[in-house]
């Protein structure tokens, strides 16, 4: 995500409320304590909180939005596996797709909780399988990287012994 795209993203409501509380509370404290520097720093800190929320990685924002659910559990498992893989640049598209799939899965879970039809159940099962397959792919990817490192190390050891 580029910085231009990040600035177009909406700021989560919880962060807006926190940023407003920081700005208003700090300004009130400045007036009560007669400390004018707080009149400047409090709104700046509120803006910085909003900026941090907008620029946070997609996976952090999605995890913040998802309540305890199967979607969140599957996404957390995938993100743990993705953090282990050394070639993170190649993993980013997979993580972005998994975040979107987890968001959609949660929506389907909510519809099913309200008694939705069989299409939602089929869609949910499909998304669960996709997230599980992505986690398995990351595990295989990690294993292949470990195998390559072991092969390189054994070649280096053989070269040293020769």
Tally of DSSP β-strands:
0
Proportion of residues in β-strands: under 5%
Put simply, the count of helices is: 7
Helix content: over 70%
| Order of helix and strand elements from N to C terminus | HHHHHHH
Radius of gyration: 23 Å
Q: How many structural domains does the protein architecture include?
A: 2
What structural class is derived from the secondary structure elements?
Answer: mainly alpha
The best one-word shape is flat
| Straight-line N-to-C gap | 49 Å
Mean pLDDT: 80
Low-confidence stretches: none
Task: Explain what you see.
The chain has helices spanning 3-8, 13-33, 37-55, 58-65, 70-84, 88-113, 118-161. Helix 4 (58-65) runs parallel beside helix 6 (88-113) and helix 6 (88-113) packs antiparallel against helix 7 (118-161). 86% of the residues lie in helices and 0% in strands. The protein has two domains: 3-56; 60-161, no CATH class. The protein is mostly helical. The longest helix is centred in the last third of the chain and has 44 residues, at 118-161. It contains seven helices and no strands.
């Amino acid at each position: 995500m580029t910085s231009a795209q990040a600035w177009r993203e909406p700021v989560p409501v919880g962060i807006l409320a926190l940023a407003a509380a920081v700005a208003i509370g700090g300004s009130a404290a400045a007036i009560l304590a007669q400390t004018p520097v707080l009149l400047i720093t409090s709104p700046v800190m509120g803006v910085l909180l909003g900026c941090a929320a907008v620029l946070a990685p997609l996976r952090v924002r999605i995890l913040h939005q998802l309540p305890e659910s199967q979607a969140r559990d599957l996404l957390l498992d995938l993100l743990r596996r993705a953090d282990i893989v050394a070639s993170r640049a190649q993993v980013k598209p997979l993580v972005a797709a998994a975040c979107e799939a987890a968001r959609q899965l949660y929506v389907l879970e909510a519809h099913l909780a309200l008694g939705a039809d069989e299409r939602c159940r089929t869609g949910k099962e499909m998304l669960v399988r996709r997230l599980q397959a992505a986690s398995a792919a990351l595990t295989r990817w990690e294993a292949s990287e470990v195998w390559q490192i072991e092969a390189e190390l054994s070649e280096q050891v053989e070269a040293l012994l020769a």
